Structure formats: C-alpha cells, structure tokens
C-alpha cells in the first residue's frame, strides 16, 4: 500500500519548506489537522486569545526575521477577527500568510457552520487570496501564496482550506510538494542603470541634499548600503518606520528633529521606501524647488500624489549601493562641500532639542508624557527592540525615542492600528529570545488586545510593557474638544482609571504603578530584572497633547 498524507500535514510541509518555524493561532474544528502536521514537522504552535493577535503576530514575525509569518484561524468569525491584522500587514508591506478554515466542499452553499465568503472579503487587502480546491494541491497552493507575498513590495496572502480538503488523505506520490528553494526567484532589483547614473549626477551637483530612509531599507535588509551611502557622500539622513535605527543616535549623519527644516531648504531630497501618503503630507511637505528622487519596490508608489524628478524601482539596498558607487567614482561627488550644510542642520537640531529638554526632565505630577518617553529612551540598550502601540503617547515617543540598532523599531505602520503591541512583543521575543523587548502602550491600545498578556506568561516570553495611562483615548479627545468645544470633549473617549500593574500580577506577570516621575527608571529596572512579562503603569497628564496630535489635519 502506498503512503498517504493529509491536507493538514501537507500545509505543515509547505510551511517548513518556506522556513516558517512557528504559527500563531486560535483553535477551531476546521483547522486542527494543521496542528497535527506542525507537531510532526517541528513547527511551534502558539495559541492566542484573539485571532487579531494571531494575525498581528505573524506580521511582527515577518518584520523581525525577514521570513514570512503565518497565522492559522478557523472559519467565519475566526477569519473575520483576523481581518484587521491582515489589513495592517497590507498597508505596512509585511509578508505573511493567513490560513482560514472553511466548511466542507461537499456542503458548499448549504449553510455549513461558520461558512462565509472569505476569499471575497480578503481579496482587497491581500496580494493573493484563494480557496484550495483539492488535497493534492494543498502544499502547491500554500507555496504559491508565499510566492505572491513577494511580488513587488511584499504583503499578505490568504488561503481558505475546506474542512474535507484539509482532513482527507491522498497518496503521497499524487501530492505536489514544491521543493524548498525551488519555487520562487529572487525579487532583488538594482534599478535602471541609466537612472542610477542620473542619481549620481544629481548627488554630484547637490549643495544641500538629504535622504529619508523608510521601512523598505529594513525590509530589504539594506542597512549597510544605506550607511555607506550617507557616509561616503556626506548626506544627512532622516529615518521613519522600520528604517529607524539604521544609523545609531550620535552618528554625525543621524538627524531627527530638523526634518521639516531640511525638507524646506534642501536642493535634493531622496525618499527611500516611503510613499507620499498622509505621513508625508501627500508630498506637499517637500520644497517645490528641490529635486526629488523616489526609490521604491513598487512601481505604483513612485510618483503617486506628487511629481518627482527621478523615480527608481528596485531594492533599497542595491539601489543605494549602486548610486554610491557611481557617485564615488567621480572626481567631484559633492561630499566635501556639504560640511556647512550638516552644521546648519545640526544647529537646528540642537535648538529643537534644547527647547524641549526642560519638559523631558520635568518633575511635574501628573507626569509629563515627554518625561516618560525620555526615560524610556535613556533606558534602551543596543539590544532592545522598541514597540509603539498607541495614539497620543506613541506620537510623543516618535519625537524622542531612538532605537540603537537597525530593525529595533516596530510600529503599526500607515493603517494606524491600535492593539498591535502585545502581538508584536510576542513575535519579537519568540523569534529573538536574545533580545530585550520593550513596548509602550496607550491605555486605550492596551485594552484592545491586553488579555494576550497571559499568552506571554504561558509561553514564558518576558518583555517590558509600559502603559502611558491618561484614562482616555486622548488623541481623539483633543480633536473633539478642538472641533466641538471643551464641553463636548469627553464624549465617547474617556476610559476608567485602571491599575494595569495589578492586571499584570493577576495574570502571573510583574507589575507596578508609577505616579512620581523619579520612580519611572527604577520601576523599569525592576521589570527588567524580574525576568517576567511586565507592565509598568505610568499615570501621565491627560491635559497634555503631543504636537503631532495637535497638527493633525482631520481636526482642522
């Protein structure tokens, strides 16, 4: 008799072939054969308390490891619960696969348990969405879904697998099982050589260039090329998204607080791996007289919302390396004459820092949010992965917190999803147990997915959690008060005064309550030493708002 294999075991083999070593899941009757296959293939199964967390964790795993993440959820509400996580990965260009259950094909359109048109719902927010039609094709289509994750800029894929397809067994020789490393090609492109030469020319003639290193620098693992580019050509660098940490704080080419000034005064602005979306004022924040170059993995992003002088489609690391080589080979590449430009920007940077410093050192009670994020920044080590999950409080942190190493900053991305923090911490610590993981939550953001703190305890995934607690959804509260008046500023946005430190203790972790700013650092040290999942609940002033919150256009 020939050896047989089930659909669930074929899924596990395809995951193993892709290098996936963990799945994030919430159990359901439609998907349990995948668990059985994962046990045989040595793939860890981390079961969470909400499917949104499973999807966010798969997204976070991809960001940390560079490999695609995988979440497995049941049909119907299991899949719909995961939609937010998939949508977040879609906007953040994160490669992950969501596998959803489905009723048996033999019961198609009969009203089976938890039957919904999952593929129709997932198609607009994925790069690929399909139903697996037969057991023989399971591994083949899983591999196809992973391949589609890397078409252009990366992103998520979705597969639904009917229960009878998943549970059925077929002769092993009839199943198509793609061989590891043989079913997809490299997507790394250096860009048009003529465009590279044009960029080298622009650099050679620029007096005041600057570069914005966005998330694709990390996605492409182009850190070394980016560092060599800015140093060899003497170009001031700003970083956003996962690009933060490309240069360490204190590096002479690392700038943060002078970005608006640079975008106004520069004669050449190079935007790498960042779309002209709301975060960039749809391109309107760039000087209208500057030459603008945009480098991106996705052709559709280049030149969208704003005219550019040069667009290059390609891998951020390869493009920057080629441009640096082309420019450095010239007798005059402009690097030497940019000393005064860097000094000009450094003066603006220093002035902005000194203006804000009194608030960062404030002893006020309730605690000024600037003091909290200052203490966090001082607490970070080179091995600390920082995660921001919140509205107003995380907007404060974006001005102050500077990761010390590449790939050590995580935030939701342009979808602005609250509730990613616990899942990102889970994925980061599971994938990199050698790293310290620190997450700053808003109290509203923590409330969305906070029960998975217990999952962190159950799987022994220690991290340092900090809740900036103002008992409000304060970013929205500001907008309501500004738009409708203070007397209507507390409608639908005010939360209870919750002692989240006690919540952590209830679930088996370490917790503290902090109301004195002098106690922030000692509490963080005790959390670090506890070796447990932790929550330090810091009560911050609810009447103080981040400048980024007050400048949001939707409130004007």
Automatic annotation (TrEMBL):
Domain Thiamine pyrophosphate enzyme TPP-binding, chain residue ranges per copy: 389-538
Thiamine pyrophosphate enzyme central domain mapped to chain residues:
196-322
Keywords recorded for this protein, A-Z: Thiamine pyrophosphate
Q: Which cofactor does it need?
A: thiamine diphosphate
Q: Which residues form the Thiamine pyrophosphate enzyme N-terminal TPP-binding domain?
A: 6-115
Q: So what family is this one in?
A: Belongs to the TPP enzyme family.
What's the protein name? Thiamine pyrophosphate-binding protein
Q: Which organism is it from?
A: Nonomuraea antimicrobica
UniProt lineage: Bacteria, Bacillati, Actinomycetota, Actinomycetes, Streptosporangiales
């Amino acid at each position: 008799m020939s050896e047989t294999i089930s659909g669930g075991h074929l899924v596990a083999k395809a995951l193993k072939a892709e290098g996936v070593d963990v799945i994030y899941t919430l159990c359901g009757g439609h998907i349990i054969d995948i668990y059985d296959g994962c046990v045989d293939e040595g793939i860890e199964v981390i079961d969470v308390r909400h499917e949104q967390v499973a999807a966010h964790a798969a997204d976070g795993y991809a960001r940390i490891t560079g490999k695609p993440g995988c979440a497995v959820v049941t049909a119907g509400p299991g899949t719909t619960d995961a939609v937010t996580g998939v949508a977040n990965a879609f906007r953040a260009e994160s490669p992950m696969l969501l596998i959803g259950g489905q009723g048996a094909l033999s019961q198609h359109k009969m009203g089976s348990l938890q039957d919904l048109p999952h593929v129709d719902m997932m198609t607009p927010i994925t790069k690929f969405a399909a139903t697996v039609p037969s057991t023989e094709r399971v591994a083949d289509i899983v591999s196809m879904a992973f391949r589609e994750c890397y078409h252009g800029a990366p992103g998520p894929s979705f597969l639904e697998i009917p229960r009878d397809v998943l549970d059925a067994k077929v002769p092993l020789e009839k199943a198509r099982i793609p061989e590891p490393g043989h079913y997809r090609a490299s997507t790394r492109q250096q860009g048009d050589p003529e465009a590279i030469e044009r960029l080298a020319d622009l650099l050679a003639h620029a007096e005041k260039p600057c570069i914005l290193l966005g998330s694709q620098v990390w996605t492409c693992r182009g850190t070394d090329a980016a560092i060599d580019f800015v140093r060899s050509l003497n170009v001031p660098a700003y970083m956003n998204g996962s690009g933060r940490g490309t240069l360490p704080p204190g590096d002479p080419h690392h700038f943060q607080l002078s970005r608006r000034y640079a975008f106004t005064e520069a004669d050449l602005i190079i935007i790498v791996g960042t779309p002209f979306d709301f975060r960039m004022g749809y391109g309107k924040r760039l000087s209208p007289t500057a030459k603008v170059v945009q480098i991106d993995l996705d052709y559709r992003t280049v030149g969208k919302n704003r005219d550019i002088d040069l667009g290059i489609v390609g891998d951020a690391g390869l493009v920057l390396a080629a441009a640096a080589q082309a420019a450095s080979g010239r007798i005059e590449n402009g690097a030497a004459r940019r000393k005064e430009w860097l000094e000009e920007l450094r003066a603006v940077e220093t002035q902005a820092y000194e203006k804000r410093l009194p608030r960062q050192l404030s002893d006020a009670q309730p605690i000024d949010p600037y003091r909290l994020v200052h203490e966090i920044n001082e607490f970070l080590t080179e091995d600390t992965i920082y995660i921001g999950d919140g509205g107003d409080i995380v907007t404060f942190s974006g001005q102050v917190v500077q990761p010390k190493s590449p790939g050590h900053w995580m935030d939701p991305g342009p979808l602005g999803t609250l509730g990613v923090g616990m899942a990102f911490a889970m994925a980061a610590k599971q994938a990199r147990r050698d790293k310290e993981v620190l997450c700053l939550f808003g109290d509203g953001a923590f409330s969305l997915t906070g029960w998975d703190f217990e999952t962190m305890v159950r799987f022994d995934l220690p991290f340092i959690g900090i809740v900036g607690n103002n008992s409000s959804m304060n970013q929205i509260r500001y907008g309501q008060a500004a738009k409708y008046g203070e007397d209507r500023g507390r409608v639908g946005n005010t939360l209870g005064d919750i002692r989240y430190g006690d919540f952590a203790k209830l679930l088996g972790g370490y917790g503290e309550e902090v109301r004195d700013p002098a106690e922030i650092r000692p509490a963080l040290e005790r959390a670090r030493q506890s070796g447990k999942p932790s929550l330090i609940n810091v009560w911050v002033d609810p009447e103080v708002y981040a400048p980024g919150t007050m400048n949001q256009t939707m409130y004007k």
